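HUMAN: Now follow token order:
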Amino acid sequence: MTLGASQRLHEGVAAVETMTRFALAVLALASGVYTYLGVRSLLDGSPTAVFFAAMIYSASVSVAIYAFWSYMARFYPHVTTHAGRVAMLGVMALGAAMIIAMSSWLNAAALAGSAALEQHLAETVEDYSGDLDQAHQNALAAQSLLPDIQRASERFAQLAVSERQSGALTGTQGSGSVVQLLSQMSAQMKELENGVNASREQVTKLFNDGQKRLETMRKLVSAPGAVAPRADQFSSEVVALTGVIASLGQTSIAPSIRRAADDLSLGFIAPVADGGDADLVNRQDAVMETVRSSVAAQSKVLSEAADEILARAPVAERRFVPLSSAEAVLRYATDFIPAWAGAISIDLLPGVLVFILATVHGVIRKQEEKMPFADRITAAELLKALEVQRAVTAKAVSPSETGVPPEGEEPNNITSLEARARAKDRSHEDR
């Protein structure tokens, strides 16, 4: 049974030898083709130079992969010592790492490079979309102060009307210094209100422009066709969008509100009381002092609100870095694990064949060690041994060298033959 199993394994190894070589050649060729597609995207220059450079590199990769795995398939299964096996495994690991470095990542770039580059563009769109929203919010933050400014303007205007018509503040109706002061404060607030409204219109216009740029960028990401031309146009849109975001950052009305609020209190100039008698003058001075206090309070509220807006984090400057398909595959490797697995498998699958051959040869050696000597020797070896025995006997070589018994004793050809066969078997195992 052992002899039959061992013989069938020998026959199986011999039968798959041609298939093994064919498989190595096909896998090496496939790796070379995908390596060519990957390396071509990295090279610059004339189309002819790029073609020949990529072709030479891919051919070198194919030859290297075929030679490396051929050597491993030829020698590793026959290395039996522990130290030899460890050394061969180290060489195999080093070779596999070199193959991955020079071929597998380029194979992955050929398999998933376009998808990885599109993902890079898509993530860039999302990043710039967030920047545009943040810049828009920062620019519109000052709009929250508009109701306070409108209320203050209306209040000053209503007090001026009441004072003019009924003398609600001084007790004397007419257009005096108090009405003049209230109208002045209302006009200042109205001017600030108009500035906020104008800023809102400009911010809205810039934001709409940015939205159009983002829409164009999204269309470029999902558009059919080659990704390289789309990436070039995408870069142009990024430059334009960056300008829009920078303009939004400079459009905020908050600094202007802050300065205007300071001017309300620091630059407050009350007119001289113009009453006809001392009592009216005193009443006008008292009202104007009240107006001064109200303006100071309003100025403080606006200044604090403007400071909160100015304290917001500005939009960080972002740079768009164009990537090649190979670089995109490396950066987003975790998102394209199936492509990486396929690319590496093409290059390292021959290693599985090497381990299969090593396992089979190991089983053969163990089975043959358990076989009797008579089962291990082949007919050809037996005939050869008989020829050697006859030649030695004919030349009368000394017994110590040939194993022939001394004169007077009957030669034991079987014993001598077995001794020579065992010596030959040991020599074969040593090799």
Notes: Residues 2-114+334-370 form one domain. The chain has 14 helices and no strands. Confidence is low (pLDDT under 50) at residues 406-414. The two ends are 27 Å apart (CA to CA).
